[in-house]
């Protein structure tokens, strides 16, 4: 438009020739004549240039779909541009990888510059009104291995106090345990809990706010007496405070946690809770800059409901005991008392252990493992079976986990004929006297060089007698002395005279 204005001004006002004006403006004389022939001053239209066909043009649709799909994934799950290049090269692309890199960069920039949501309404919560809950995925080294962890974030909406607890999965028992631990650390229970539509809480999402809530989750909310509120689909801003907490803790707290080496998950959780409590005094409250999160939490605790007894948040399922006294749970096998063979038991899963309940109400607690394809034996579960089948001691897999004194005794006894039966007699004393007492008796027998069941049992009996000496004051008798003993011999004379008077010689 500026060139056209100058052209008209030179020709029509200053009476410069068309040739001279075109020369000064560095345009074609024919173009100048065409522009001046227009009755009105309009913006000149240039013919659109047709770009030459590029080799990458046939694959741009695939690249766009891949980039859009990866934009909804986590940063760790997104594919690289090199992966895009290899994919389209397998489809027949023969161009240079530079074209792929340039196109992907331009398309990603266009997505970033695209208009976002219209905006958000700022939210405000009263003290003790609500908390927000969410999960995040983190990686740390536990037991020498890099493990993926599911971290539960619980944050009070008013005071901004938060608690983090790490688990190996997001199952129901982990969810219930996270609430119990968080409420205990925060000092009470708010009135409402705000969640997304996680599968452990919502069985089915209906229209609007209609939700089919999981029965076990509803039992937990009824126990702690708070109302569960679920966000709309793709509306994470409705619990934006805990969403931001996930980002903030990943940049600060988890950076320190990833640099350490942890012996167990319990050790990590102990450190996490302490780190959260320490940060409360360091963080400034966004609404009251003169106060810290710990200061506001102190006021909010007065508005929270007192914490009731912990919710028994187990997940129960039936399990059949095999002929080898094993039950199966999540691709692992655990031993139970051999008396339960071929019966159906109740398996209750907790975050750290498994509780097995028999049909008669007997319970056994097992250490839970999150590994796969492992077998965990407790040799004491097979003692009664060994009494009937002592020959299985020699190669019995459960008995390879016995303490070293028992294994040494077994090695010496099995050298002699009938040693397996003698060993079975020693093992039968464990349920009666306790493992510690039996181990002490075995160590004494091994020191003396006399390895026999009789010697071990006699030593055990002596240890029991010495451990519980009988005191005079412990004798329980209803007899009472009517005449206290006195050092007076005249009493005997009186008794003798009275006896002689009462008896007459016939």
Cα-based radius of gyration, to the nearest Å: 42 Å
What name goes with the CATH superfamily of the largest domain?
A: Ribonuclease H-like superfamily/Ribonuclease H
For the record, the CATH architecture of the largest domain stands as 2-Layer Sandwich
The assembly state of the depicted protein chains is single chain
Largest sheet: 6 strands, mixed
State the gist of this model:
The chain has 506 residues and is an alpha/beta fold. The chain folds into five domains: 2-37; 55-107; 130-303, Ribonuclease H-like superfamily/Ribonuclease H (Nucleotidyltransferase, domain 5, 2-Layer Sandwich); 315-376, no CATH class; 382-467, no CATH class. The chain is 41% helix and 16% strand.
